[in-house]
């Protein structure tokens, strides 16, 4: 037996080393080579990153409303009138610079990584964030300095330029909800679907401020009807699967962002913060308190910094702006205190996210736990396997 064992040849272990594809520069659809750093950025920056510029633009709009003489009640007018106009202008410039930078990067992504953009459009969460760039531009337009007045021709052209893509997305996505079997609302519904509603309501407010009342009512009714359908679907858990990852739980704040924006849009349409606007404001305030009383719901999503954290900022800003308009209409101490509280919370959350983003810029651009990125990569790898 010993001799037979010694006669056997020794077992050889052969390890093959494969060279990663990252050693070679990626190529775009036309075959042009990309540098590794540029390719990495284009694969990481998806439409969800426009939450940052959206939060900046909404915060600039809040500051603009607060510094206007008729934006707050007389009791606290002297507090906000001391805010220098240059601070609001610098915030708007920062928001515009961020929006322009993200737009350029995403335009390059559409050219060099079009497969990822198509995969993003196929994703039940990623497709909703395609509304975010246009909402951000409309927020910037509404918070713009006095150089871009509502009656100017440039303002009207830009407003229509940003509203038309929103309407086209509505026709595409809302049409799929009740005509395409694999994309029924009962299957595709998730909290990020509310971004489409917010887009319609922001467009309605922009149209109302330019005097296009019929267009504003059309966009407002389209947004509020779909909000009602979405709210009932999500409230009763009619979606066929748990389609929202834990890391995206901050998007639950979109539940009260939509009625807040609805109250602001209706206020612009009617010219007064009437009963309809008050009902929507109180409903959004109730939803905010309901979520604020359940911090453990967001505990798991707060373990690692992610771009999804910016979903906390702009819903709070919408609610604060609605509180400002409510305080202006009611003119009582309780309404003023509520407006001050929500405005301070909005500003503090915004500043906190700014500092966290600056401190975690590497994690923000190099994170691999983003569910949208994972889906896009799988979609692209599957497409590459089928072509081979």
From TrEMBL:
Pfam families: SLAC1. The keyword Transport applies. The chain crosses the membrane at residues 89-108, 129-148, 154-175, 187-208, 214-235, 247-267, 279-297, 309-327, 333-356. One of its GO terms (biological process) is intracellular monoatomic ion homeostasis. The keyword Membrane applies. It is found in: Cell membrane. Keywords: Cell membrane, Ion transport, Membrane, Transmembrane, Transmembrane helix, Transport. It is a multi-pass membrane protein. One of its GO terms (cellular component) is plasma membrane. GO terms for molecular function: voltage-gated monoatomic anion channel activity. Belongs to the SLAC1 S-type anion channel family. Slow, weak voltage-dependent S-type anion efflux channel involved in maintenance of anion homeostasis. Homotrimer. This is S-type anion channel SLAH4. It comes from Gossypium hirsutum.
């Amino acid at each position: 037996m010993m001799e037979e064992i010694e006669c056997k040849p020794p077992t050889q272990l052969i390890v093959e080393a494969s060279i990663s594809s990252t050693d070679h520069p990626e190529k775009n659809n036309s075959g042009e080579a990309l540098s590794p750093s540029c390719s990495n950025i284009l694969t990481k920056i998806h439409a969800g990153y426009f939450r940052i510029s959206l939060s900046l633009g909404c915060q600039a709009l809040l500051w603009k409303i607060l510094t206007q003489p008729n934006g707050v009640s007389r009791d606290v007018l002297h507090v906000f009138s001391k805010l220098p106009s240059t601070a609001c202008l610098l915030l708007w410039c920062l928001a515009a610079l961020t929006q322009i930078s993200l737009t350029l990067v995403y335009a390059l992504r559409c050219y060099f990584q079009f497969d990822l953009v198509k995969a993003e459009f196929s994703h039940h969460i990623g497709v909703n964030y395609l509304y975010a760039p246009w909402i951000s531009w409309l927020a910037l337009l509404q918070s713009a300095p006095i150089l871009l007045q509502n009656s100017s021709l440039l303002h009207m052209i830009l407003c229509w330029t940003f509203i038309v893509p929103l309407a086209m997305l509505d026709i595409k996505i809302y049409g799929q909800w009740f005509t395409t079997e694999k994309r029924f609302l009962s299957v595709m519904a998730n909290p990020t679907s509310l971004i489409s509603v917010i887009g319609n309501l922001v467009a309605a407010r922009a149209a109302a401020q330019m005097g296009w009342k019929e267009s504003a009512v059309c966009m407002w009714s389209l947004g509020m009807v779909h909000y009602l359908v979405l709210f009932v679907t999500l409230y009763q858990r009619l979606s066929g699967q748990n389609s929202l990852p834990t890391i995206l739980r901050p998007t639950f704040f979109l539940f009260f962002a939509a009625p807040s924006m609805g109250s602001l849009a209706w206020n612009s349409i009617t010219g007064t913060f009437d009963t309809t606007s008050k009902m929507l404001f109180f409903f959004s305030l109730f939803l905010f308190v309901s979520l604020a009383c359940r911090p453990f719901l967001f505990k798991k999503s707060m373990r690692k910094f992610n771009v999804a954290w910016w979903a906390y900022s702009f819903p709070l800003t919408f609610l604060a702006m609605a509180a400002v308009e409510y305080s202006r209409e009611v003119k009582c101490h309780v309404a003023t205190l509520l407006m001050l509280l929500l405005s301070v919370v909005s500003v503090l959350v915004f500043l906190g996210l700014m500092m966290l983003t600056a401190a975690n810029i590497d994690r923000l651009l190099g994170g691999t736990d983003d569910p949208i990125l994972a889906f896009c990569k799988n979609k692209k790898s599957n497409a590459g396997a089928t072509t081979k």
